[in-house]
Amino acid sequence: MIPNALPYPVLSTLIFLPVAGAILLALVSRKQEGLIKALALVFTVADFAVSLPIFFNFDKTTAKMQFVELYNWIPAFHTQYFVGVDGISALFVLLSTLVTILCVLISWKSIRNKTKEFYMSILFLEGAMIGVFCSLDFLLFYLFWEAMLIPMYLLIGVWGGPNRLYAAIKFFLYTLVGSVLMLVGIVYLYNYAGTFNILALEKLNYPVAMQMWLFWAFFAAFAVKVPMFPVHTWLPDAHTEAPTAGSVILAAVLIKMGAYGFLRFSLPMFPQASRAMALPIMVLSVIAIIYGGIVCLAQTDLKRLIAYSSVSHMGFVTLGIFALNVQGLEGGILQMLNHGVVTGALFLCIGIIYDRTHTRQIADYGGVATVLPIYAAFFMLFTLAAIGLPGTNGFIGEFLIILGGFMASKLAGVFAATGIIIGAGYMLWLYQRVFFTGVNPKVSLLSDISGRELMAIAPMAILVFWIGLYPNALLSFMHPSVANLLTRMQPGAPGGLSAFTHFLKAVFA
Amino acid sequence: MNHIYPLIPGLPLLAFLINITLGKKFIRDKAHLVSIPLLTASWALAMWTVFEVMHGRTYDGDLYTWVVSGSFKVSVGFLIDQLTAAMLVVVTTVGLLVHLYSAGYMHGDKGFYRFYAYLGLFVFSMLMLIMSNNFLQLYFGWEAVGLCSYFLIGFWYEKKSASDAGKKAFIVNRFGDFGFGLGIMLIFLTFGSLHYGTVFGAAGGIAGRTIDILGRPVGLPTVIALLLFAGAMGKSAQFPLHVWLPDAMEGPTPVSALIHAATMVTAGVFMVSRCSPIFNLSPTAMGFVAVIGAFTALFAATIALTQNDIKRVIAYSTISQLGYMVLACGVGAYGAGVFHLFTHGFFKALLFLCAGSVMHAMSGELDIWKMGGLKKYMPVTYWTFLLASISISGIPPFAGFFSKDEILGMAFASGPLGKFLWAVGAFTALLTAFYSFRVVFVAFHGKFRGTHEQEHHLHESPKSMTIPLMVLAVGAVAGGWIGIPSSLSGLFGLGHIDLVGPFLGAVVGEPHFHQALSTEYLLMGTSVLLGFLGVLLAAYMYIWNPELPGVIARVFRPAYLLSWNKYYVDEFYDRTVIRPTLWVARNVIVGVTDGKWIEGVVNGVPAAIGRFGRVLRKIQSGVVQDYADMMALGVFAFVAAILIIFIK
């Protein structure tokens, strides 16, 4: 690992600057809404500025942890304050800091109730999210992981739609059940190895049967978070009811945590179990791709449709990860970022129109392209990225994943590729119903996007093209870490169906 | 020179960027003044490039590295060879003429700037497609032209039928691209590269290799070729993926000329020709390609016989002519296919632009039965339309004769299957001449049958529209003279003056079919005769015996209805694909699987669901107004979780 060489503790600043902001907001009178919003914006922008040196000073030639900070925390439990990033996590830190700014911008006028608490939640959530991506100590990781739950729960439950409490509790219970199983796994690992140090735990070789059970314990937490089929049903409710900022953070960052968990823990710690389980998980992923897509065809609610499309897109991500080859893994990581950008942007866009119409029903729209042409152009761009049009970021991710999936299992690749047909179907149909045909009287008097709203979606539009035309800017971060991960996965060991059956025999015989 | 090539697609891209960003506020109805100079420059550079290639200076080089992941490495780069050069001529010339024509045709449309922006984006994408030196960039261009087609078909998006048609084009093409994309992946897995040079250089090495498909070994070249061809079937509107092209006529007519006649739809033919080293390895795939091509040619021609919408007749005619090109590829005569692509680009674009000129004069009228006698009012449109119709009918010495004859001759010489396909093609030639002249006679001859209002406004189109017609007419007449077969040139003592065969042969090879000179003359004579027969038949039915068509339609009513209803292919897809999918999505998946089963099982044991549900209902009912309770629950859960860690 490489200690932090920057003149300030960059990762700790990233984690605690927003938390400090939240505390500062607590001291401001709730009547000073302008000040509250300005402070929130200042802190999120400052956090983004602090995160930029990671992009420019990242050493792309090594798989080692970088910008590392290590302090003793609770000696009695051998637990440390240990943070660092590698080629897998670094880019998610940057995504988190960027997305939070956009969330503040998009909430500027739409959140009028309990404004102070809202921005406190957002800032607190930002710190926790970055903490999850940076933690290299299991206890610290779990602390941040659970800490994310509270502000997110509040965002949905307080500032959400009419059905918000149902959705918030559902979100909370699903994630908590998964987390508890992960906690059991963490505790078991600690008992076994006597440390919470993730890097140390990654270096140990666990007995295969133990790997198996631990794999499933962690899988429960991560699969719910992704969310994988069939534990996806909390996501549409959470997305639909959450306020725009909540949906954006959920789509862009929070559901990436599950896939990140696979990459950081499941694969390197339980390599044999992961190889053995790769095939069933690839099958679940392909089901998610097709199932999520078909469900989209039947949706009448804008946000619900995009939420189900997330299930489909995250199916691509898990397919790529469990293809267990370079193209699959790098495609998977890139697609996590892409999905964050594109689906995040789509939720931002939906928020923009929802602020004007206060309806999410597709049938209430029509002819929006005539009334809001600039808005329509941006929405079209994100639609195209969502259906993986070459030149946009979505294409690179999907292509690498399908290629990786095809290399791991031809049938998985073929079935995953049907996702590109279904995706075009539901997204273009959605676009047609909302933007084309005659102008619905309900939208005829709306104004096109404002400068503030443009600032909230323009960065995403730039990312769509930048990643689409020059993906190496991001892929180059991943090469050493992914190669290192694959070395750890021992490509010589049996994988796929034979390993799976072998495994079942070992477990049940 | 390698810094010149990026400018050829770059300038149209610049036109797009300028118009799409500044068009709405600043440029508005001056968009053509931005686009036309840039397109002219691009055209000039393309012509210079063609000149370079004719002097043997080809090029293959990379611009920058696009994607790297493990051993997967793809660049953006250009391959400039004879095949690219032939395409460059068609794309930039027709592209420029359509830009000129649209200045008049689209004048006054509120989306004028948007129209020019999309046109620029299209030309850029098409050029990236044909100039690519690897499969991934080809796929980029392939999808991007499809996107432009989607934009332009649905240009008048307020009309539901237009936005439906655009969506349909995109999605039907995605079915083909599903195969195309898998084919590209299989190429990478087989050759370890997507660069044309590497792949085609090593193509010979995979002859005889097999791949397991559901436990059965299938020839690897066959699988790759058929997957690639699936893409071509979508883009080049081959049966059964042809259904999007007739609907694409919802777009403005200049778009139909450029995208849906001369350039984009020929991308499939171009791609198959480009991949000839792979297709040549698989007789099975080649046979399939040839049969699909011939069948599509005949199938679409029989539909064109009865359509009354002038653009739809030309659209089905395009599908039919694309069938000829695909047939040529299938018998290994790629050069002939590309030659027909070249001549077709001119005469078909001309037919469409003439149709546009008529629509312009008749305020959007499409029904040929409401026209009639237009010859008198629109002489330039009439004469150019007539020349294009003669050309497509295969009457010498017009352009279409040489290219179509080349295809039919090659098909006949290619073997026993080829002789059958020749017969299909020759019969289709008769139908082609018939339906083409049916339009000529019904729309331009006889008496005007439209409203008095329409008649009052009939006028020849402005110069900006008629000049492109006249330029294209030169191509429709003389475009074939660059490929006069030696059997004919010898007859007139001109020696060997065929430029096309040897030029394209450098890339796609020339089939070595031996055919007696007498057979060649016989075939040629037959197809010319059939062409004349078609014209005569049309004249007989639509000029001399105008009541005859109605009688025939009554007597052969089932056949007439099949043709009139396009063999019910759309209805078939609607009932077997679209409706069942939506039904399953709505009633099975959302209603039962997602709603009841998964929610039920995942939410826990049934008893718990009941309690959970009651609690939730209470919350929803609004009894719990304050979120504090919930927050307390959250904090409690968090504290509990922390405690669990320390108790262990």
Keywords:
heterodimer, A: 509 residues, mainly alpha, two-stranded antiparallel sheet, 21 helices, 2 strands, 3% strand, globular, B: 648 residues, two-stranded antiparallel ribbon, 29 helices, 4 strands, disordered C terminus
Amino- and carboxy-terminal Cα gap of chain A: 42 Å
DSSP helical segment count of chain A? 21
Shape of chain A: globular
Summarize the biggest pleated sheet of chain B: 2 strands, antiparallel
Please, what is the oligomeric state? Answer: heterodimer
Number of strands of chain B: 4
Large-scale geometry of chain B? globular
Order of helices and strands of chain A: HHEEHHHHHHHHHHHHHHHHHHH
Residue share in helices of chain B?
A: over 70%
Determine the mean pLDDT of chain B: 88
Structural class by sheet pairing and helices of chain A: mainly alpha
Order of strands, widest sheet of chain A: 1-2
Topology of helices and strands:
The complex is a heterodimer of chains A (509) and B (648).
Chain A: H1 10-27, H2 33-57, E1 66-74, E2 79-85, H3 90-107, H4 115-134, H5 138-159, H6 164-193, H7 198-203, H8 208-225, H9 234-241, H10 244-254, H11 256-269, H12 271-297, H13 302-323, H14 326-357, H15 368-371, H16 373-386, H17 393-408, H18 410-435, H19 451-469, H20 472-488, H21 496-508
Helix pairs in contact in A: 1-2, 1-4, 2-3, 2-4, 3-4, 3-10, 3-14, 3-19, 4-5, 5-6, 5-10, 6-8, 6-9, 8-11, 8-12, 9-10, 9-13, 10-14, 11-12, 12-13, 12-18, 12-21, 13-14, 13-17, 13-18, 14-16, 14-17, 14-19, 14-20, 16-18, 16-19, 17-18, 17-19
Chain B: H1 7-27, H2 31-54, E1 59-69, E2 72-80, H3 82-105, H4 112-131, H5 135-153, H6 160-191, H7 196-202, E3 210-213, E4 216-219, H8 220-235, H9 244-247, H10 253-262, H11 267-274, H12 276-279, H13 283-304, H14 310-330, H15 334-361, H16 374-377, H17 379-392, H18 399-413, H19 416-444, H20 452-457, H21 463-478, H22 486-491, H23 500-508, H24 517-544, H25 548-555, H26 557-564, H27 569-602, H28 606-620, H29 628-647
Antiparallel strand pairs in B: 1-2, 3-4
Helix pairs in contact in B: 1-2, 1-4, 2-3, 2-4, 3-4, 3-10, 3-15, 3-21, 4-5, 5-6, 5-10, 6-8, 8-11, 8-13, 10-15, 11-14, 11-15, 13-14, 13-19, 14-15, 14-18, 14-19, 15-17, 15-18, 15-21, 15-23, 17-19, 17-21, 18-19, 18-24, 19-24, 25-26
